[in-house]
Amino acid sequence: MAVFQLESSGMRDLIKRLKPTKFEEITALLALYRPGPLDSGMDDQFVDRKHGKVPVTYPHELLEPVFKANLWSNRIPRTGYANCAGHGNYSLGEADILRRAMGKKDVAEMEKQREIYWDLYDKKDIKKVTAERIYLI
After folding, report:
1. Exposure winner among 1, 30, 70, 124, fewest CB in 10 A?
2. How many domains does the chain fold into?
3. In terms of domains, do 80 and 123 share one?
4. Rounded distance between C-alpha atoms, residue 27 and residue 21, angstroms
């Protein structure tokens, strides 16, 4: 009670359903407790995955450590780094360019970055459909 953004009855219900055991789960709830994610059922999916009712899957095995360790906005630069650094010299700085383009809705830059992504994944024989799925995360 009386903790900013956690005090509403809906949020308290979500916390009770999740039964968080890590601080990162609270931050995830803060991201999920918004009209878009709530309307799409993402909150229920998150709770079900936490409690093992629904298996957690990853678009590619390289993403597992990234998604286990990082939440939401941190995933964009980390995903770019974890999957492209070493595969095609895609640095955190370059991944941050994509994050900024997405934040500013810079379509031209996002399309440029999409081509870079595909090229880097192609060098490692990762299918374009998988690279596209990762790009859209």
Report:
1. 1
2. 2
3. yes
4. 12
